[in-house]
Design goal:
This protein is an alpha/beta fold. The protein folds into 2 domains: 53 residues, no CATH class; 281 residues, Metallo-beta-lactamase, Chain A (4-Layer Sandwich), CATH 3.60.15.10. Helix content is 39%, strand content 21%. The strands form 2 sheets. Strands 7-8-9-10-11-12-13 form a 7-stranded mixed sheet, covered by helices on one side. α2 packs antiparallel against α3 and α13 crosses α16. The protein starts with a helix and ends in a 7-residue tail after the last strand. Bound molecules: zinc ion (2 copies). The site of one zinc ion (ZN) has 4 residues, from loops.
């Protein structure tokens, strides 16, 4: 697809740089008083320079969901670690920062979502501190800074997020020292991190979004799901969780529910120990079908298709039992709402 087709934020004004002089020529030829013509031209010009906002209104979509990473700890080359971008009026908000976050953001930019220019990555919400959800933390702290971001990264997450950020800054102290004191001349502010350790409730608000964090059940980990309310959409993301009543309460007819899941078929093939792990940490297709039937999202996006136990066994039947095809088969049997399997760089 061409850049123009996929990019809602493309401004046609870029292609009309000779427009003002054309308007002047037209005013010279028009029988109306030139003053009136020029004023009319100015109104048109202002409208065109504000085209991006108008274009979004016309498309009825100020909010885009960009799946930057739909994976799990499994090192699947097709799926980066968990990271979802909610983009509202050109501002990106990240949920989780798994492996590959910044490179996937650059890929989304290349696909036409200009808001995901890496230097625009300035705010992130972390669901929990499992490594698959945070391996890209240092990447999001440092890479956009090296590319010129001047603002510190704002990060919201559970208790322990601050310690993780402090440790990462220490781990990369040599890098930060050489880049700020050496010939790179990197700025002194953009590598910093402002951590906000949060409790359930309203955690963030600006002109684009209201973000609510709510507790979900993921073993003994302090874990949040998030609800994003934007001018045109309500988006709920599960994080990693067993079926949690809080997800039902926070979605209830939401526009989009992004939820983790594993297949029933793969559950039957793993050891009792892995079955117990799954029941304590994750959500089966049947459990998700039951939850979504009650929560009634406009669209259910499946992500973080976990296959613990099978990932370690690496047998062909175990892999197939946990495949996307199997998952969709199970979901379509048990859930009558609209459901899709998310892939990296899908846009909704
Ligand atoms: Zn995970
Ligand atoms: Zn987890």
């Amino acid at each position: 697809m061409s850049d123009k087709k996929t990019n809602l934020y493309h401004s046609p004004y870029e292609t009309q740089s000779d427009w003002p002089s054309g308007m002047i020529q037209l005013c010279k030829r028009t029988p109306r008083p030139r003053r009136v013509c020029r004023a009319f031209g100015m109104v048109i010009l202002i409208s065109i320079t504000h085209w991006p906002a108008l274009a979004q209104d016309k498309a009825g979509q100020q909010t885009q969901i960009v799946l930057l990473g739909t994976g799990t700890p499994l090192p699947d080359p097709e799926r980066s670690g968990p990271c979802t971008a909610v983009v509202v009026n050109g501002v990106p908000y990240l949920i989780d920062v798994g492996t590959g976050t910044v490179r996937r953001a650059a890929a989304a930019r290349n696909k036409g979502v200009k808001a995901l220019e890496p230097t625009n990555l300035k705010i992130a919400f972390i669901t929990h501190l499992h490594s698959d959800h945070t391996l890209g933390f240092a990447d999001v702290m440092l890479t956009p800074w090296i590319m010129g971001r001047r603002e510190p990264l704002e990060v919201y997450g559970p208790t322990g997020t601050r310690a993780m950020a402090d440790h990462l800054l220490k781990a990369y102290a040599t890098d930060i020292k050489t880049r700020t004191e050496g010939l790179e001349h990197s700025n002194m502010t953009g590598y910093k991190v402002n951590v906000h350790e949060i409790k359930p409730g309203s955690v963030y608000k600006d002109a684009n979004v209201k973000v609510t964090a709510f507790s979900v059940r993921h073993g003994q980990l302090d874990t949040f799901g998030y609800r994003f309310e934007t001018p045109d959409r309500t988006v709920v993301i599960s994080g990693d969780t067993t079926p949690s009543p809080s997800l039902l309460e926070n979605c209830r007819g939401c526009d989009i529910l992004i939820h983790e899941v594993y297949t029933e078929a793969s559950f039957d093939l793993v050891s009792p120990e892995w079955q117990q792990y799954r029941r304590t940490y994750h959500t089966s297709s049947k459990e998700l079908a039951d939850l979504a039937t009650k929560a009634k999202p406009g669209l259910l996006i499946l992500y973080h298709r976990a296959n613990p136990g099978c990932d370690q066994a690496r047998t062909e039947d175990c892999r197939e039992a946990g495949s996307e095809e199997q998952l969709l088969k199970e979901m379509h049997l048990m859930y009558k709402g609209k459901v899709v399997a998310g892939h990296d760089l899908d846009i909704y």
